Amino acid sequence: MNDPTRTLMYAEASQASEVAALQYASNAGLIADLVQKLRALDPQIIFTCARGSSDHAATYAKYLIETRLRIPVVSQAPSISSIYGAPLLHMKNQPFILISQSGKSPDLLLSADAARKAGALVIAFVNDTSSPLAELAEIVVPLHAGPEKSVAATKSYINTLCAFAHLVSHWSGDNEAQEAVERLPETLKTAWAKDWSAGADLLHDAHSMFVLGRGLTLGVAQEAALKFKETSGIHAEAFSMAEVVHGPMALVKSGFPLLIFPPLDKGAVGLDAIVHQFLGRNAKIAVAGQQFDGAVMLGLPERLNSVTAPIAMVQSFYAMVNAISVKRGYDPDHPPMLQKVTETI
Fold this sequence. Notes:
By secondary structure, the chain is an alpha/beta fold. It is built from 13 helices and ten strands. The chain has helices spanning 8-13, 16-41, 52-68, 79-82, 106-117, 132-136, 155-172, 175-182, 184-193, 197-203, 218-232, 271-280, 309-327; strands at residues 46-49, 73-75, 95-100, 121-126, 139-142, 208-213, 235-240, 257-260, 284-288, 296-298. The strands form two sheets. The protein has a five-stranded parallel beta sheet. The protein has a five-stranded parallel beta sheet with strand order 7-6-8-9-10, sandwiched between helices. Strand 3 (95-100), helix 5 (106-117) and strand 4 (121-126) form a beta-alpha-beta unit. Helix 7 (155-172) runs antiparallel to helix 8 and helix 11 (218-232) packs parallel to helix 13 (309-327).
C-alpha cells in the first residue's frame, strides 16, 4: 500500500467532524440532564476506569475536571476488581466513569459491577450502546462514533474527548468553552485539512522518540505515543513537559526526535526553555501550533480554545501518523499481534 489516503484509519479519522456534530446534537439533552444530576450530587471525588486509548481520554478528562471544576479525579485500575477482587470502599454516591469503545472487556465489566456494589454512580462513555457495559451502567453517554473497523482507534477517541469537553464546559458554566465545543465539528474539519507532511518527513525514520504534552494535552501525547508504536513500529514514549527533565532528558542527543503538543493555557509555562534546551542538543523537534527557530511548526486552526485545542491537535496528528505508517511499509489497519476488541482481565 503506497497511498495513505486508502487506509481504513484515514477514512475513519476523516469522519471525526461529522460524528462530532452528530454527538453534539444527539447528546445535548442527555448532557444537560447529567450536569443537573452531578451538580445536585456535588461529588467530592470522581473515578475513571479505562484502558488503552480510552485511558488516554481519561487523562484529558482528569485535567479538564480538576482545572475547571476543582474536583479530584482518580484513575481506578481495572485489575483491582478483576484480578485482586478487592471490595471498593468510599465510593458511595461518587461518579465512577468507565470509558470504552466496545464495552465488552471483562475487566471493565467487573469494575463496573464492583463500583455499583460500592454505591457509586456508574457512568459509561461507550460507543456500542448495546454492549454489556452499557447494560451495567446507570447512565450511558453514547459516543456516536459509528462503526470503527481499523484496529487503530481514531474517531472513537476524538468523540470521547468531545463528550468530556461537552460535559465539563456545561457543568463549569464556561461560556467560551461551551461555544468552542459547539464549534468543534468545524474546528475538526479545519484541523484535518492542515498539512503536517513536514512532521512526517521529520519523524518517519525514527526508532525511538518522545512525545510531550502537559495538562490538557498530556492525554493526546499518550495517545500519539501509542499510535506511533502500534501503527509504525516506533518506540515512542509520552512524558509531561515538566516530567521529561527529571531523567528522560538524558536520552536526548543529536538527532533524537520529539513531537510536542503545547497546551493553550497556564500549562505552557516553561515551554520555551525546554524547547531551546532540546534544540541546544541538536534534537529533531516538531511543535504543534508554535514556531521556534530550528524546529518544525505543525499548523493548527485559528481561534482555538484551550479546552478544544487538544482535540484539534490529535485530529491533525492522525493524518500524519497514518502517512508515516504507510511510508514505513506498515499497515495501520492491521498492526501485528493486535485486534480491535481487546478483552483483558
